[in-house]
């Protein structure tokens, strides 16, 4: 095997030439015998080449190469060994692929591979149970044709997949699934799907519990507050010393009522994905009325509240929910801005959709609080909260309303200088006043 074939070949050629010359010496025809010798050698080489070609073309996977002499035998063997090595590597690779496929098939979570156009390429067994994919019919089908939930299409078409999507399973309404999408390679997608029915049920129980407790507490609280009011009206006749205590009770009762109302509103917002009414809302008019309420709330603080609104831009959605969200932002600005401060409300539209911003010259918020500000009951400063009588639920309500209207909120703030809360609504949510009047 490790023979020096270079030297051997030269030796063979020298032997051939010497043999031919000897024959030439005997016969007297040097030229002819040399030509005949080389011709024979060429014919033999061509024959070996043809045998090799034949074997390469027709051999069975494990068939040994034909026997060959000298260098040709070595060439046959080398090719044969190369092929065997290649087969072994392929076998090992196939074993790895089989193991990966077996392990993913055993997974409870679904794994789906999609090509750059969103067509199904490969999926495991769990994908058949969770998404109802059928092997092999669905191969090459667009995933949006098979998972037909409207929120899935929206989710799939967006640019980044920071958050997972939770929807009911297409095979069974009672099963909740959570989908994670990741881009890889040449804009291909990897989709992971988990069954989160149990977590969803627990979450639902928590929501129902809060909603039920709030609902049950509302009636007794209304009765208590009603009697407190009557008692306060006649406090002089009953016992004048109770006046202060009764006033504080009434004030705290009022706070509890606002808290219950906010909790109930949040529970209602969480119950569905989108508002049931999706009518174009005149945001300009809505903001005008919120502004005059804010002016009243401001009262002796005498803040300067300005409104600049593009009245031609309407928003599809629920007027009641939008009123609640926008008034929370404006009333917060009034609450957290000192007397004589400025509050600027703006409503405008551009290529990216419609935008509402509420800017104040108030106390501002430290940047470390900004990421958590929309959490329920999150307070920047609890003492500040009790002064303003807030519930700590206002911004959580705003966040939910915006989510339901395909919008997001941006908060920028400088402590001591003021804050700006901006809501960005997607173009799909915007309606033009002209179009509406034409339709009417
Ligand atoms: P609250 O009912 O306490 O106002 P929110 O959820 O509306 O609850 O607001 C959460 C917290 O965010 C508030 O306690 C307050 O500290 C802060 N905050 C909200 N809006 C403003 C604002 N415009 N300026 C300064 N701080 C604000």
UniProtKB/TrEMBL annotation:
Give the source species. Answer: Pseudomonas glycinae
Please name the InterPro entries in this protein's record: aa-tRNA-synth_I_CS, BphY/WalK/GraS-like, HATPase_C_sf, HATPase_dom, His_kinase_dom, HisK_dim/P_dom, HisK_dim/P_sf, PAS
Q: Which residues form the Histidine kinase domain?
A: 212-429
Q: Which PROSITE patterns match?
A: AA_TRNA_LIGASE_I, HIS_KIN, PAS
Its transmembrane ranges are 12-32
**EC number per UniProt:** 2.7.13.3
Q: Residue limits of the PAS domain?
A: 89-150
Q: What does this protein do?
A: Member of the two-component regulatory system PhoR/PhoB involved in the phosphate regulon genes expression. PhoR may function as a membrane-associated protein kinase that phosphorylates PhoB in response to environmental signals.
Report the NCBIfam families cross-referenced here: phoR_proteo, PRK11006.1
Q: Which CDD domains match?
A: HisKA, PAS
Listed name of the protein:
Phosphate regulon sensor protein PhoR
An example molecular function term from Gene Ontology annotations: kinase activity
**Compartments, record wording:** Cell membrane
Which reactions is this enzyme annotated as catalysing?
ATP + protein L-histidine = ADP + protein N-phospho-L-histidine
What keywords were assigned to this record? ATP-binding, Cell membrane, Kinase, Membrane, Nucleotide-binding, Phosphate transport, Phosphoprotein, Transferase, Transmembrane, Transmembrane helix, Transport, Two-component regulatory system
EC category: transferase
**ATP-binding is among the record's keywords:** yes
């Amino acid at each position: 095997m490790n023979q020096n074939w270079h030297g051997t070949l030269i030796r063979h050629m020298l032997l051939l030439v010497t043999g031919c010359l000897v024959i030439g010496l005997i016969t007297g025809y040097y030229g002819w015998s040399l030509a005949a010798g080389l011709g024979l050698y060429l014919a033999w080489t061509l024959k070996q080449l043809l045998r090799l070609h034949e074997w390469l073309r027709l051999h069975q996977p494990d068939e040994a190469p034909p026997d060959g002499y000298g260098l040709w035998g070595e060439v046959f063997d080398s090719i044969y060994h190369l092929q065997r090595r290649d087969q072994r590597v392929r076998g090992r690779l196939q074993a790895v692929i089989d193991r990966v496929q077996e392990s993913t098939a055993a997974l409870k979570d679904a794994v789906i591979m999609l090509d750059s156009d969103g067509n199904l390429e490969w999926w495991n067994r769990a994908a058949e149970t969770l998404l109802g994919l059928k092997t092999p019919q669905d191969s090459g089908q667009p995933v949006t044709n098979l998972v037909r939930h409207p929120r899935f299409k929206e989710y799939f078409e967006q640019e980044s997949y920071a958050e997972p999507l939770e929807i009911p399973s297409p095979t069974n309404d009672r099963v909740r699934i959570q989908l994670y999408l990741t881009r890889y390679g040449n804009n291909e997608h990897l989709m992971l799907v988990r069954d989160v029915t149990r977590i969803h049920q627990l979450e639902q129980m928590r929501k129902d519990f809060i909603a039920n407790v709030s609902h049950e507490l509302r009636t007794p609280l209304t009765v208590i507050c009603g009697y407190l009011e009557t008692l306060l009206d006649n406090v002089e006749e009953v016992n004048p010393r109770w006046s202060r205590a009764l006033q504080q009770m009434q004030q705290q009762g009022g706070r509890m009522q606002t808290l219950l109302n906010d909790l109930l509103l949040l529970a209602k917002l969480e119950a569905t994905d989108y508002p049931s009414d999706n009518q174009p809302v005149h945001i300009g008019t809505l903001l005008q009325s919120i502004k005059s309420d804010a002016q009243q709330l401001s009262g002796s603080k005498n803040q300067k509240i300005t409104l600049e609104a593009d009245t031609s831009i309407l928003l599809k959605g629920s007027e009641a929910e939008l009123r609640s969200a926008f008034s929370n932002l404006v009333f917060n600005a009034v609450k957290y801005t000192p007397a004589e401060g400025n509050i600027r409300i703006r409503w405008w539209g551009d290529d990216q959709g419609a935008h509402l911003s509420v800017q104040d010259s108030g106390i501002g918020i430290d940047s470390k609080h900004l990421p958590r500000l929309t959490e329920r009951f999150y307070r920047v400063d609890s003492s500040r909260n009790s002064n303003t009588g807030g519930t700590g639920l206002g911004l959580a309500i705003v966040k939910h309303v915006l989510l339901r209207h395909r919008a997001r909120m941006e908060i920028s703030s400088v402590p001591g200088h003021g804050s700006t809360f901006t809501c960005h609504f997607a173009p799909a949510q915007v309606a033009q006043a002209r179009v509406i009047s034409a339709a009417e």
